[in-house]
Specification:
This protein has 87 residues and is an alpha+beta fold. It contains 3 helices and 5 strands. Helix content is 43%, strand content 26%.
Length: 87
């Protein structure tokens, strides 16, 4: 499965607060460093396994732990209709 941000949704740096923000139609979500790291890898080409493997290597952490966090984060964004998982 490949996570893809929906049309009109993008990540941007909020220069006033100095934090990354996920902007969607009529909403904005402040992101922590982990959320920003995950979304930086959501490019419409990389699948879930690729994102997890990349994060595991970058943070020297077990892929199993990272997978559960990434899946929960992406599921939350999908529930908020900011992202969808494509086959």
């Amino acid at each position: 499965m490949i996570p893809v941000l929906l049309r009109g949704v993008r990540m941007k740096d909020d220069r006033v607060r100095n934090v990354p923000v996920l902007l969607g139609p009529e909403r904005a979500l402040l992101l922590d460093a982990i959320g920003a790291a995950i979304l930086a890898r959501v490019d419409g080409a990389r699948d879930l396994d690729g994102i997890v493997d990349d994060l595991a290597a970058a943070y020297d952490a077990p892929a199993e732990v990272i997978r559960s966090d990434v899946e929960a984060f992406l599921a939350d964004l999908a529930e908020k209709r900011l992202l969808e998982m494509q086959a």
